[in-house]
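Hello, quick one for you while I still have it in my head. No rush at all, and the record is pasted right below.
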Amino acid sequence: MRYVRTGITGRCGFTLVELLVVIAIVGIIAALGIPRLNEYRARSYNTQALTDIQTARTAELGFFVDRQQFASTAGTGCTGDPICTGPVDFISNGVVDITLKPGSALEAKGTAASFTAATKQLRGDRVYCVDSDSSVIRYAIDAIGAPLGTNFSAPIPILNQDDCAANFPFIQ
């Protein structure tokens, strides 16, 4: 860099061109970094929804061991029933099975022999689905900000069939 003497006092400074180059470089770095930051944020919210679906699967299996049937979120008294957005009490005995973080949603549909569940974090871009008849967790791409149930919900459980496969094409 070249310093320019200004006036009799001998003060040095940067030229206008040098300042513009620095501002341009900072702008380019910001333009590249901000979209990546948004991708990382969406990925962290998707991880939260994935954790919720794994917890729901565990709660459903525990419910089945106790009651010999699977549970539904409808009628559990959760916020947003049947799509829960807060604590979920499958047995309705005052013991919370799953506590969803703000922005998360869960819907479970259960029968005597099978269950399906779907979760989404409002700020994520994936909806996850799990079926008791399959060991995989499936997902579909959804719009960020779209609540669970707008475009995707838990499918009706049918015994011996991967009910998530039709609407949730990707495997986690």
Notes: Residues 15-171 form one domain.
